[in-house]
Structure formats: C-alpha cells, structure tokens
Amino acid sequence: MKVIGSAFVEFSPSAIHKNIEDVRSFRKGIGGSGANIAIAEARLGAKPQLVSAVGGDRFGQFIINELEKEKVECTHVSVEKEYLTGISFYELDAEGRSNYYFYRFPGISMPEEKLMLRGIKFEKEEIVTITEAAIRGAEPDIEALSGARIFYEPNIRKAFWNEQLRERTMKVIENAYAVFPNREELSLITGIKGIEEGAEELLKRTKLVVVKMGSEGAKAFFEKRSFYAPGIEIEAKCEIGAGDTFHGAFVAALTGGKDLSEALLLANRAAAFRVATGKFPRKKDLF
Asked: What are residue 168's phi and psi, to 5 degrees?
C-alpha cells in the first residue's frame, strides 16, 4: 500500500486551553496527512510506503528519520534541495478550539510541488491513499495510478479551497474507489448538508463513501448498504490527526482481512484513542 501526501514538521503546544501567544514552548513532531496516515497504518501492522517530498534541510532529515523508526518505507520520499521543509503550529485555545497556523509557501516551503508519480510502480488493485495536500500543488497524475485502488482523503482546509482545487478534487473522486470526507468536507464537496444525501451524490462517482462524524461516530455507504459505528464516549485531549488515524486504521483493517463493518468499527476506535491520548494507537490498544 502507498500513501501520497504531505509530510512537514508540526509544533504542538506544551499547554492546552491557552491561546498560542500565551504558550511558552512547543514540541517538534511530524505533521501532514500523508505522514500521519502512513504512521497509523504502520502501527497497526501494515507496511505502508509514503510518497512525498521534504526540503533539503535538517527538518526534512528529521521527518525521514522519524518515519523510518515507525517502519514507514521512505524510498519514495524525495529530498528537494532547493526547498525548505514546511512547518506548522497548532493551538488548543482557551475555548477548547483547535487552530492551525501553516508556514508553507509555494516555491519555497511546499516541496510536494515537485512530487512526481511517474516511475513509481503501482500494483494492480493496490490500495493507494491520495490526500488533498497531494493535489494542491500539482495536477493529479491519474494515469500513473492506472489499476490501483484509490482511497481519497480530502483533508480540506477552507483557506486553500478554490475552483482549481475543486476541479482536481472531482477528478480524483471520479477515479477513486473510496472517499473519506468528514461531515463538513462532504457538504463542501457536494453542496449538500445531509449525510445520507451527500453520500448518495458521491456514490454516483465512487464505490465506497465513509463519512467521519467526530463524537457521533462514522457511517459507511457501499452500493445499497450502509454501516454505522456509534460514537465512543471519551475525555477529549487532542483532536489533531483523528481523521488521519481513522483512515490509516481503516486501510490497515481492510488489508488485514477485515470486512467493511469490522474496518469501520476498528477505525472508529482508533480515532477515539487518538483524541483521548494524542497518540497513534498500536494493535494492543485496540484489541
């Protein structure tokens, strides 16, 4: 399996429920939906390969080192010497909201602009996750993915959403096997507020739609059937990366022989674990 998406350095606050100007220190870690999904898959026993790009700086080397420690294959993570690695900060502010601050600029610190799929071998029916970040900087190379089973993780940021990105998103969806929006992304993509109605619209273009609903659980729609994983009551610590964790766990479950219903339940538990602990789960945390 492969994951195509971004990998950047993310700084997490030393204290929660404080505005970012009042936080005194931050901890360096890996961010980016591509890297997050790959780590989630690897921790649950899968063998993901990340297709990404980092800058030719020490932050880029840090990302590769950490991914390899997590047993994520980095053969297809290119080092773009003329770029800096992107960075981001997030806060869990005084009102409990999560806010992101991205310092990633075209031509300077968005090395995924140089991402090329030509020359990478994609096996027939291989599950390949594409994230929104992978199509923000360049037109999706759908022909290079011919024969692969595309799982699309929108991970849409409203700040980046525009007509060009909408067109690229629809091109990926029309060639995807599965799409994994959250409730807000589903509405943004389809223009429809209802979950069932929005999923029905997407099913005109793809085979499987999995809608992440946060504390209310998740729903999957496949052909004429639907599946539901109820919300899990937890004390929330950090919601950052929950959707990526869900996606990675779902893919790991499917490739591990689980059916759609089992994969949905396991992914829901994995996301809840991430929110409760701020960590990517391992098998022992979910079974």
From this structure: -65, -40
pTM: 0.93
The residue-averaged pLDDT of 179-188 equals 93
The sign of the CA dihedral 39, 190, 138, 59 is: negative
The residues near 227 (Cβ < 8 Å, ≥ 6 apart) are 219, 220, 260, 261, 264
Task: For 185-216, write each residue's pLDDT tens digit.
Answer: 999 899 999 999 999 999 999 999 999 999 99
Helix (H, G, I), strand (E, B) or coil at 24: coil
Q: Are 275 and 242 in contact (CB under 8 A)?
A: yes
Identify the pLDDT of residue 138.
Answer: 61
- CA–CA distance, 43 with 6 (Å, rounded to integer): 19
The Cα 207–Cα 177 span in angstroms is 5
Task: Give residue for tokens 């297709």.
Answer: 51
Nearest to 180 by CA among 145, 156, 147, 144: 156
Q: How far is it, in rounded angstroms, from Cα 202 to Cα 186? A: 9
The confidence score (pLDDT) of residue 66 equals: 97
Coil, helix or strand for 31?
strand
Distance (Å, whole) CA 265 – CA 261: 6
Enumerate the β-bridge partners of residue 226: 221
Q: Tell me: the pLDDT tens digits for 108-150?
A: 999 988 888 878 999 999 999 998 777 766 666 778 888 899 9
What's the rounded mean pLDDT across residues 144-168? 84
Average pLDDT over residues 232-240: 84
List of domains in the chain: 1-115 (3.40.1190.20)
Beta-carbon contacts of residue 221 (< 8 Å; ≥ 6 apart) = 196, 199, 200, 203, 208, 209, 210, 211
Name the H helices within the chain.
33-43, 58-69, 132-136, 163-174, 183-190, 195-202, 242-255, 260-277, 283-286
